[in-house]
Design goal:
two-stranded antiparallel ribbon, seven-stranded mixed sheet, Spore Coat Polysaccharide Biosynthesis Protein SpsA, Chain A, single chain, alpha/beta
Amino acid sequence: MTTAIIVAAGRGRRMGGQIPKQFLSVNGEPILVRTLRTFAASPEIDQILLVTSADYLTYCKNEIVDRYQIPKVREILVGGKERWNSVWNALLKCPDSDYVMIQDGARPFVTEDIIRRTDAAMRAYGAVAVGMPSKDTVKITDEEDFVVSTPDRRHVWTIQTPQAFAYPIIRRANEIMQARGMEGVTDDAMIVEASGISKVHLVEGSYTNIKVTTPEDLRYFDLEGDPAAKEETL
């Protein structure tokens, strides 16, 4: 069984406004609906656990899952203070899963093709993350913003979601890292890397598989009819 954990508990402060970005309505429906619908349509996904904040628990049930008739959503859970807390809450609810895919609720341009390729890699390697090779040169700096090094761009990727794991790997990695401390952890792949449980294999996603973070990101919805134009903006 493969469970998709959709994380939609963030506050989205960089977006501004009164409601979290994943609930913003674009082209007539909330951003989160599109993310959920893509995972629900994927034959690789057996069930979905949606994680949100306590303030939006009822809203997600009534105005997201029920109103838009999203199938496969087994349960809506309350998230935690940090992203890893939210994912952990969901992991405790699906111990019967063989695999889990963890997805940002505010990353609505994920495709069924990305999910399919992630699923295949997950089964082959046990721990994978979607990303894309960096188009830009990246500099590593010290605390005073002086350049320390310039990594070879051929080996630099920007990381996206989904991130997918065999259930025992992500469960045990979380247990190890909770015991050590989660300070500085920014995604689920990093938890697995730092735990030493498994290497993480990278899978190409898409440059258009962005996370909606700032008001400027909303323009990508207007470019959907012209994929070349959307790609050009990234």
